[in-house]
Structure formats: C-alpha cells, structure tokens
Amino acid sequence: MKILICSEFFYPHIGGVEKHTQVLASYFIKWKHKVHIATSFIKNRQKFKNLSIKEFNISGNIVKGYRGDTLEYQKFLINSKYDLIFFNAAQQWTLDLVLPIIDLVISKKAFFPCGFSRINNFLYKPYFSYLETRINFFDNIICANKNAADYKLISKNKKINVDIINNGAEIIKPVYTKKKLIKKFKLNKSQKIMCNISNIKYWKGQDRCIKIFENMKTNDTVLFLIGKNMNKFYYKFICFLIKRFNYKNKIKKKKIILLNTTHEEARTILHHSDLFLFGSRIEYDPLVIYESIISKVKFISYDVGLISHHNHNPKIGFISNDIGLLSNKADEYLQKLNTYSLNVDKFLWKNIMNKYKKVLSL
After folding, report:
1. Domain holding 100: CATH number?
2. DSSP classification of residue 119
3. Least buried of 108, 127, 168, 244, by fewest C-beta within 10 Å?
C-alpha cells in the first residue's frame, strides 16, 4: 500500500504528535508499505531511508488563519493516489485544510484527533461545529480513550464507529551510559537526576516544573529541561527563572540545565533519570509519560489530559494539582529508588501497533 501521514510537524521536533507520526511511519514501513509524510517546511531536514517527506511552507489553522500556499496542499491531496491518508491531530493546517475539500479526496482517510484541546475555547466553538459536519467523510477514526473530549464529541454521531487504541512507547536504547552522562554535564556521582521533555512554551509548563523543584527539600539534585524553543518570550522567562534558581541554590548543589538536543539524547537522559517531572497545561495522552513508564522512571505530574488514568497505580507516578503535594511526593520518590512495580508490556508500541494493523486493514 501507498500511505500518506499528514502531521503539522515531524522530526526533529520531539513533541508527542511528532513521535506518534514517527512510530506509525516506522511500523508501516516495517510492514512493507510505501510511506510519505506531509508536514511543515524546515531548513536542512534530515532524510530517512524508505521514507519520503513532502514539505509545505504553511502554518496556522481555520481559527487563526493561514500563512503560505494553502492551495498547493489541497491540490496535492485531491490529485494524490494514496491507498490511505492518515491525518494526525486536529486544530492545525494539515487537517483543517482538507475539511473543505475532503469529498474530493478519493483515498481512504483515517483520523486521529489527538484530544480536541481547545474544545472549551469559545473561539473554537464554530470550528468544532463545522468539524462535526465533515467527520462522516473519514473512513476510520481512532481515539486513545473513551473519556477523552474527542471521543465524546465524535461518538455523538451514531453513524460513526470510533476505534479505541491507547498510546504507548518503545523500550529506550540509550546512546551513552549514565557514567558518560555524569561526565558530559559535569555532575556529581551522588546527584539525583530529574528531567522534563517538552518543547519550551507556556502550555508545556516548564515554569511549573521549576516551581516543584524549588519547593523540594532534597539537595544535590539536577533537573534537565529538554526541548526546543517554541516561544521566544516564554523562553527568555524560563532562562531568567533558571539563572535565578541556580544562583540561589548553588550551596545546596541544586541546579537546572536547559537543553535543546536530539530525540535520542533526550530519551537517553530520561532513561538514566531518577524522576520525571511533567508540568504541562494542555495535553491529550502524553507519550512521554509512557516512555517514563517503560523506562521504569517514576513521574510527578499535574493532572492534565488523560494522564489521570494512570492514577490507579501510585507506584509508577503521582498526579495532583497541589504544588505542595507534588514536591513532597518528589522528595519521597527520590528517597525510595528502585521500588518500581508494573508489567509494561501493554504499553509497548510493538503490541499496540497490531491494533492499528487490524483497524486500518494493513
């Protein structure tokens, strides 16, 4: 089969949608399908074996408006001869631009909404009303959980069958050892390591992670904030908070390292961490939490998106919106390392992707 995946961003971006797209593509290729990615243009994009990337210099969505040659993308979809087009996430141009012309796209069409994070934003009310009128044109719709906003909205249409496939992660293969990590970043051997992996912008809540760290009593600790600068004003604010924090906590041997690096190194640091902090304000079913679970690194997180469905097992993480409780539990976890208890097989992509294979008739 010839398959197109439409995703606003793709590698080297390290967000959840980008990672999900990468996982889908890798398994489709593994199953001997020809795979193309339609995504936003970036300079000097890395080329991949057996994967073709079609870039468009477009940004925006229906509500915010668009920049770029939107007709180029729409003509590309109308004239394409793919056996399957998979649209990954709503509220962005790769999905929104197909809606007006979707009846002209003859390929089989699958849609993974990724949560409808702005469904309660009054500016998006007309958008979701319009989306409901176009949803019947998709052949497959896949959501991660029946408690999610996307499933609740779409399932109101009784003519549509929505398949539920949870997110997951792959076993992380570190690119270097913990000993090399300590040496590379000039850490103390005794230092506890924490990390957060999210692109640097307000909605990802790096400031909340810093606040948790500030309130923690455990000394001799380091927090890696790993992500790409996505908002220059918020990035400057985070840099200010880090500089102030490191100055105030030098005697306590507590410090924050801001890092923009590869996906592979980010996951290596997660693999070697003692604790994962998550301060995001808007999420769907964050893949990085699954990566934390697979790596058997406990997490501390605000209650956001579908993350609360992990709350039944406090041995893998702690979820709350109370900064004091989050900080206290982080201290507790760092004092009781190596107490992780969970069978992670059901969270592995290699098992989850078999469901995609069945649903999409691959």
Report:
1. 3.40.50.2000
2. T
3. 244
Looking from the CA of 194 toward its CB, the CA atoms found within 13 Å total: 29
Q: Is 358 helix (H, G, I), strand (E, B) or coil?
A: helix
- Please write the tens of the pLDDT for every residue from 66-84: 999 999 999 999 999 999 9
Residue pair 34/1 in contact by the 8 Å Cβ criterion: yes
Residue where the block lists tokens 């999420």: 283
Looking at the structure, tell me whether residues 150 and 244 fall in a common domain. no
Considering the domain architecture, whether residues 19 and 110 belong to the same structural domain is answered as yes
97 within some domain:
yes
Helices and strands counted in the chain (H then E): 12, 15
**Domains identified in the chain, total number:** 2
> 355 in a domain, yes or no?
no
- Estimate the crossing angle of helix 206-215 against helix 323-335, to 10 degrees: 70
| Residue 243: domain span | 178-345
Residue ranges in 216-339 assigned as alpha helix (H) = 232-248, 263-272, 287-294, 323-335
Please, which pLDDT band fits residue 344 given cuts at 50, 70 and 90?
confident
Spatial distance between the Cα atoms of 291 and 279, rounded to a whole number of angstroms: 16
Judge if 194 and 265 occupy the same domain.
yes
- Which pTM does this prediction carry? 0.84
In a domain? residue 358: no
Give yes or no: residues 87 and 201 share one domain.
Answer: no
276: confidence class by pLDDT, cuts 50, 70, 90: very high
Nearest to 257 by CA among 327, 330, 326, 273: 273
Alpha carbon distance 115, 150 (integer Å): 5
Task: Examine the pLDDT at 340 and tell me if it is beyond 70.
Answer: no
Return the percentage of the chain with pLDDT > 70, whole number: 98
Print burial letters for 141-163: b (CB count within 10 Å at least 16), e (below 16).
bbbbbeebbbbebbeeeeeeebe
Q: Which of the two residues, 285 and 39, has the higher pLDDT score?
A: 39
Residue 129, pLDDT > 80, answer yes
